[in-house]
Structures
1.
Amino acid sequence: MTIVQLEATLLENVPLADLTSLGIGGPARYVVDIDNTVRLTNALTWATKMDLPILVLGDGTNVVVADTGFDGLVVRMNNQSVECDTDETKARVIADAGVSWDTLVECCVNEGWTGIECLSGIPGRVGAAPVQNIGAYGQQLKTTLDAVHAIERATGKSRRIAATDCGLGYRTSVFKQSGRDGWVITKVELRLERESTSVVSHHDLLRILGDRQADVAATRQAVLEVRHNKSMLLDADDRNSKSVGSFFVNPVVSALRANDIARIFADDKMPQQPAGHGHVKLSAAWLIEHCGFTRGESHGRVGLSDHHTLAIVNRDNATAKDVIAFAQRIRSRVAEATDIVLEPEPVFVGFDAPVFYE
Ligand SMILES: Cc1cc2nc3c(=O)[nH]c(=O)nc-3n(C[C@H](O)[C@H](O)[C@H](O)COP(=O)(O)OP(=O)(O)OC[C@H]3O[C@@H](n4cnc5c(N)ncnc54)[C@H](O)[C@@H]3O)c2cc1C
């Protein structure tokens, strides 16, 4: 690995497998850690001059990187400051993109502020949180996000983008849609309640907490317990957490179509949640299981988590090709049975052609 001194320290020929939770991916031509916006602007200008594509990476917990790697500059936002101010009822938190998401949640919970406690334990950095509007256990970032500060790559200009302009939806945003040519998020503004009681809605949490109103710290602990039991916390000693978390998003279909699908499986208890405008959200994990896949099953060097069928796990030095072939097999079988084409949740990096066929 050669080290070149430029505006910041550039590492050359870095295996991206080491920078991702899936542990998969060929080399990046260059990687640079950035801790302030001046350095970021310099790095973006340098990449333009060198005619290199840019990939912004956090902790690499929601990316599948091609075995051939990424022939460009990987920028890792590593700025670390957090500012807070409060009034009688609200706490305003401005956190840099490089801060660990779960550390931020822990600090806010310790202050007795609510709004993000159910997002405890989600791996990754603050800067990636708006990209897919992270969500879990009845909360999503959208509810507490006030604004995103970002640099537009095309112009190099810095902007404060109100949350209402971020296109936040179920596991999506303008940042996810614009892909590599869009924005580099430098910080995130949240507005939390100074109210130490959480309102809990998810059945897994209700089972532990026993009540819809719970102390915010107890809610965080319950979330961490549930996530631990499902291997949804990053843990180097847990073979099931070598994943991107959920590989597919839950499909949203019309209520009529959902009835047809329930009939296919002869199960009127098929899980579904209201999704508005006559639509419902189905459980991708349930569909996968009902199409014949089982928890813990292996497919060569990849497999499904022992705890649920939504996480594809790198079992033994798997390649991106292995992961995609297995995911394609799951998609095809679900599509054959139900006509639903499952959409992947992670971002695919370094692939020349579309990763999946219909
Ligand atoms: C075990 C496990 C459990 C998980 N559970 C959940 C869950 O419950 N809910 C959930 O929503 N997600 C979950 N995830 C997915 C993942 O943790 C989140 O999407 C997280 O926000 C990704 O953060 P990251 O820093 O690793 O981003 P990366 O994987 O590094 O990047 C993800 C995407 O964001 C872009 N990006 C990253 N940083 C920036 C930035 N500063 N500016 C612009 N673009 C940027 C990247 O280019 C890429 O497109 C889970 C993943 C794992 C491995």
2.
Amino acid sequence: MTTTRTAQELWALGDYDRVAALIADQGRALVAAAQVGPGMRVLDVGAGSGYAALPAAATGAEVVATDVAPELMEIGKQHARDRGLTLRWQVADAEKLPFADGEFDAVLSCIGAMFAPDQSAAARELLRVCRPGGTVTMANWMPDGAVGRFFRLVSRYHPASGDGPPPIAWGDPEHATALLHGAEVRTEPRRVQIDFSGPPDALAAHYLRYFPPLVATVADLDSTRAAEFERELVEFFTDLDTGPVGGPPSYAYEYLLVSARLPARTAVRRAPARPPAAAR
Ligand SMILES: C[S@@+](CC[C@H](N)C(=O)[O-])C[C@H]1O[C@@H](n2cnc3c(N)ncnc32)[C@H](O)[C@@H]1O
């Protein structure tokens, strides 16, 4: 039986920060791709515990980190204190951002806004709060990459409740470009190395313990199905390991970097108060 959970309830399960820490390079790469720098007004949507927001703030940008899960943002606040960084944290849904039109120079979302169920609403909001000429930069898992296979495995045991395209559709270049229509969109497949040197069964155990969608899946399965799921998950991470035989394991995920530049505001031409002299 699949329990219906709000996004806030789901992402408060387990401890996503322990998973995010394994792929911290992704947030840093996103901040570099968005060319975030001192004095820029930056919004991170679906910021979690801040793996993009914190490196953005470290550049000297003024950062607002938003998410539906306050529990994760509390962990992010502690990371910020530990690193001596100042940023603002605010609960907000990607589908309805509590900000004015054009308030930010750069809008970031590191595998965050892709999880909002109404993808068109989330895309509209990302674009709306970005200033003319500014950028929306996203990292989205790809449907034909390892994370796409991972989510298909999870959905065999724990079918998604909503209709509409799944989150992973945001990792398809055509789909992302269509959602962000009106902006000049570029996409680029990238990889992030998983910072985990243990064997596949240890990585599976880490995900089962900490990754919210897996904690929810196992909670909703009976013990026989849960054991089958755990076995398949170990197989998944075994296939993902590309390390040398007898050597240390090596795991990586593919994602789509999406960079969308909004059109610059076109100068409004004012009608002259009086016709030019030559015309009189
Ligand atoms: C995979 S985590 C990524 C977190 C963070 N960006 C990172 O890179 O570590 C997905 C995040 O999206 C958030 N999220 C899910 N649905 C959301 C929504 N509708 N609006 C805002 N955030 C949402 C979750 O709470 C979670 O923190």
